[in-house]
Structure prediction request, 319 residues.
Amino acid sequence: MNRTIRGMSILGAAGTLLITLMGALVTKTGSEDGCGNTWPFCHGEIFPSYHTLELWIEYSHRIVSALVGLIVVAASVGAWLLYRKNFTVKFLAFNSVFFIIFQGLLGAAAVVWGQSDAALALHFGFSLLSFASVLLLTVVLFQMDRQGRSQSSKASFVSRPMKYGMWGLAVYTYVVVYTGAYVRHTGSSLGCADWPLCGSKWIPDLFSQGGIQLTHRLFAGLLFLFAVWLWWAVRKKYPHRKDLNKGARWSLILTVLQVLTGGAIVLTKLELMVALGHATLVCLFFSAVCYLCLQVGPPWKDHRDPSLLQGRKSDPLTP
Prediction:
C-alpha cells in the first residue's frame, strides 16, 4: 500500500509539472481560444469535427489535466488515510487536491466568461502551488518511509529569524512569479528588446509594456540576491544540516538558471523551448524554497519544541 501511494504521488508530481508547462504552452502559442468558449469539451463536442493546431494544444491540455487530477486525488486520499495522524501529510494532501481542482475551475472560468490579464496571471501561480504541494507530499512520504518519520522534525534547531527569512522568500517568489505571468499575459515579453538593461530606462513607469517588463526584471534581480543571502546564511549558521544546505544550494542554482533563461527569452525573441525551460526552472525553484519551509517548520512555532526535548516525534506543521 505504501509503495503504491508513493508511486502515485510521483506520477502526480510529474503530471502536475506537465500540465503547468502545457498551460504555459497554451498561452505562449495563443491557443487559449482553440476550443472556443465551451468547457470541458471543444466547441461542445467530445470528438471535435474539425482540427487545428490551436485546438489540439488546448484540448490536450484539458485531457491531461483531467487524468492528472484523478491521479493526484487518488494519491492524496490514500496518503490521508494511511497517515491520518500526521498533520503534515494531511495538510499537503488537502492542498494537493484543492489546488488541482481550483486551477481547473479557474481555467474553465477564463474560457467561458473571460478574465482580465491580472486575473489570468494568477492561474500560473495556482498551478505552481499545485505542483509544489504534490511534490512536497511525495518528499514527505519518502522521508517517512526511509526513516519512520519526516526529516523535518529537525526544524527545532533552526532560529525563528531564519524561518521567517525562508518563508518570506517563498512568499516573495510567488510575487515574482505573478509579475512574470503578468508580463506574458499583457504581451510585454519584448517590452524591453535589450537585456539586462532596457535601453536608457532604469526606473519602470509601470504602465507601458517596457515598464511591466522592467518591473519584473527588478523583482527577479532582488530574488537572486535573496537566494544568494539564503545560501550564505545556511552555510554559515547550519553547516550540519545537510537538508537545508542542499535546498539552499539548489535554490541558488535554479535562480541563476532562471535569470539566464529569462534573458535568453528576450535575446532569442521568444523562442518557445527557451520559454518553456524558464517556466520549468521557476516551478523547480519555488518547490525548492517550499521544501526549505517544510524542513524548518512554520516560524510561529517555537523552535524549542518541548516534545522534541522529551524525545517524542514532532510534526513540523502542527499548529
Q: What stands out?
A: Residues 117-147 form the longest helix (31 residues).
